[in-house]
Design goal:
The structure holds two protein chains of two kinds. Chain A is α/β, with parallel strands linked by helices. Chain A has five helices and five strands. Chain A has one domain: 3-Layer(aba) Sandwich (Rossmann fold). Chain B has six domains: 26 residues; 101 residues, PAS domain (Beta-Lactamase, 2-Layer Sandwich); 83 residues, Signal transduction histidine kinase, dimerisation/phosphotransfer (DHp) domain (Helix Hairpins), CATH 1.10.287; 157 residues, Histidine kinase-like ATPase, C-terminal domain (Heat Shock Protein 90, 2-Layer Sandwich), CATH 3.30.565.10; 176 residues, Response regulator (Rossmann fold, 3-Layer(aba) Sandwich); 106 residues, Four Helix Bundle (Hemerythrin (Met), subunit A), CATH 1.20.120.160. Helices cover 54% and strands 17% of the residues of chain B. Classes of the chains: A alpha/beta, B alpha/beta. Chains A and B meet through helix 1, helix 2, helix 3, helix 4 and strand 5 of A and helix 5, helix 6, helix 15, helix 17 and helix 19 of B.
Amino acid sequence: MKILIVEDDFTCRMMMQRLLEAHGKCDVVINGKEAVEAFIFGIVEGKPYDLILLDIMMPEMDGQEVVKEVRRIEEEEWGIIYPKGIKIIMTTALDDPKNVVTAFKSLCDAYLVKPVTEQSLIAAIREFFPDFGR
Amino acid sequence: MQVSQLEALFAACRTSEADLRRSLDKYTVFFQKIPALIAVTHFHDGLFVDVNEVFCHETGYTREEVIGRTVFEMNFYPDRYKRKELINILLQNGFVDNMEMTFRIKSGEDRIVKITARSLLIDNKEHLLAIIDDVNDQISRSAELHRAIEEAEAASRMKSEFVANMSHEIRTPMNGIIGLTTLLLRTELTEKQREYGLAVQSSARSLMKIVNNVLDFSKIEAGRMDLEIFPFDLKKTCEEIVNFLSFQAEIKNIEINLITPEDMVRHVSGDEHKLKQILMNIIGNAVKFTSEGSVSVNLKPVSVSGEDMVVCFSVTDTGTGIPEEKKDNIFDAFSQGDSSTTRRYGGTGLGLTITKQLVELMGGTIECESVEGVGSTFRFTIPLRIDAQSHQSQSGKGVDDNIRSLGCAVQGDNFTGIDGKAMNILVAEDDAINSRVIIEILEQAGFRVHAVGTGRQAMAAWQHVAFDLIIMDVQMPEMNGLEATEAIRAKEKSRTCKQPPIPVIALTAHANAEDRRRCMAAGMDAYLTKPVVVNELLCNIRTLTKTPHDGPLRKADATEECKKVSLSRNEFFDREALLRRVGGKETLVSELIGHFLKDLPMQIEEISRAMTDGDFSLLGSHAHRLKGAAATICANQAAALADQIQLAAKEENLLKTDSLLKELREHYAYLNANIKEGGNR
C-alpha cells in the first residue's frame, strides 16, 4: 500500500503520516503541483500510489484542481476510467456545499472534514481497502 | 428282427455318429477360431472349462495350462472382488455388457478389457461364458490423443500468457514515456518543443492503445480475464458512452441516437467496465465506418425471470457495410475488411475479436448483419442481474429499526428558523411506513411536515410551498429522488429571484462511494442511510438550516459534529480529545504538540507579514492553514482565533485582523507556558 499525503500544514502532515506509516508507505508533498508530479512519477517508476489524501486549500494548485488533473491524466494517458484508478480522499477543513459537490463532481472517492482522527482516517480508507491496518 | 434290418440300423447309427462328430468338429473349429477372446468357466468357483485360441494367443497361456484351474489360481484378476461384482450383476440383470476390468496375463502385464458375459447351463451345471474385448490399445490411443490436445492447448495458453506478460512488460517503459512526456508538457517550453512533445504524446497514446488491446486479447486467450460484478445504472452507462462518442459523431456530422424502453430496469449488477468496453468498440466502430447518415443504439430486455435479465443491444449504422466474403471472419483475430481498411481506418484488427470474447465471457452472444454500401447492424445480448433492493424487503427491515430508533429521546433542540417560526420540511418517500416514521421524528422535534410519495409530487409541492428543507428518498416511482433534485436545481438556476438553493437530504438504502457521488452530482447536500437514526437526521437538518455555509456533511462528519457540540468549547486545549483522536498514542501527542508550538510563531509571522503587505487572500489562506493545524491538535482557542482572522481577511477588515493577531500572539505565549507544562505531566 502506497499513500501520498498532500498537505501544506506541518502539524496536520505529521499527524497523518504518523498515524498511517505503520500500515503503508507514506510519501508527503506540500502542494498540488508536487502532488500531480508525484502521482505521475509513481506510475513511471512502476510503483503507483494506491491512495491520495488531499487537502484542498494549498498554494501552487489547490486540491480541487489536483483531482481534476489526476482523473484527466488517468483517462487520457492510461485509459483508466473511474472508478478504477487511484483512490482520492479529500482531507480538508472546508465543508461548504460548493467544495464538497465540486470534489465529488471531479470524481474524488471520499470527503473527510478536518480535524481527522485515527479512527475516521482508517475507516475512510477501509471503505476502499478493507484490509487496511488489520 | 432280421440281420439285414439290424445292419441297416447300425449303419444309420454310424452315419449319425459320424455326422455328430463332424458337426461337433465344425463347432469346435468355430469356437477356436472366432477372433475374440472367449472363456467358459464354472459360474461360482471360476474353474476354466474351455478357452479359445485367441484367448491363448492374447494371454500367453496354453489351453492345458488353463483348463482345470480356477481364475483365482491363475491370478487373472488383480482385483479379486471384481469377479464377484461381475457375478452379482449377472445374477441381478441376467447379463453383463462391456464391463471394464483389469486382466492379468501370463507375462504379468495388466490389460484393460471389457467383458461381456452370460450364464448358461451345460450338463445341468451353471457356467459362465465370457467374451473379452481387449481395449488397452483403444484406451491408450485415446489417452495419447487427449494428451496431444492438452499439450497443444497448453502451448497455446503459454503463448497467450507470454504475449500477456510481454504486453505487460511493454507497458512499463511505455508508462515512463507517457508519464515523462506529460511532465515535460507541464513545464515551460518553446512552441517548437511543445509541438514535438505533443507528437510524442500522441504516438505514445496510440501505441498504448494497441498494447492494451493485445494485452486484453491474450489475457482472454490465456483464461486470465475475470468478471468483476458490481451494481450499476445501465441506462446511465449507455448514455455516458453515447455522449462520449457524440463528439466524434458531431465532427463527422452524423447523428447518434440512444433508444431505451421507458420501463426498462436501470439498476443492475454486472461487469460495467467490460460492458463499456464492448459498447465503446461496437458504437465506436459504427461511428468510424459511417461517413453520412446516423448510428442508432437500441436496448431491449429480451427475457426477464426473477432477478435475471437478458438485455439485447443493437447498433445500426448507415456506414460502408461489410463485403459478403468477409462476413464470416470479421470476429477472427487480425482481420479487418482488407489491408486497405487498416490503412484507411487504422486499428489492430483485434477490436471485434476482443468484443466477441468479452460478450461470450459475460455469457452473451453477438451477431452481425450487413449489406455492403447500406450499413451494418451488430446485435449482442448480455445477461445481467436485476439489483435486488426491492422496496418491500428494504422497508421490512427498515421499519423495525426506525421504530426502535424512535424510542431514543429527541434532545431538546428548538428547531425554528431564524425568524422564530417553525420550519417547513418536505418529505418525499414512497414507502408509507418509512414516511410515517420520519414524519413522527420531525413532528416530535417541532417541525411542520408535508409528505409526498413520488419525485414528481415533490417537484410540484416545492413549486407551490416555501419549504426550508427537503428530505428525499432516492428510489421512488415516477421520477426518482436524483431526477427530482436535478430538476429542482435546474429550476432554481433559471429563476430570476436569487433565493438560496433549498437544502436536500438524500435517503438511500445503501451508500457506497458511487451512490454518494450520484447524490452529490444530482445536487443533494447530504445523505442518510436507511433506517434513519434520529440524531443523525436532526444533526443534518441543524447543520443545513441554521448555518447555511456549513453545508453538506458526510454521514461520519455529522456524527462528528454532534460530538463536537457536546464538547466544552471553552477549553483552550483538549489534550484528552487529541489523545482519543490519535488512538491513544501518548508519544505522538507530545510530538504533535511540540511541533505545533515550534511551528506556531512562524505561522503567526507569516500572517503578520501578509497583513503588512495588505495581501488579504494570502492572509486568509495562512489563517486557514493555522486553523487546520490548531483544530487537528485540539487547540480550540487558537483554532477559533484563526477562524476569526480568516473571516476578517475575507471582509478585508485590517483593524479587526490586527487586534485578533495580537490576541493570537498572547494566546501563543499562554499556550507555550501551559501546554508544555501539561505535556510534562
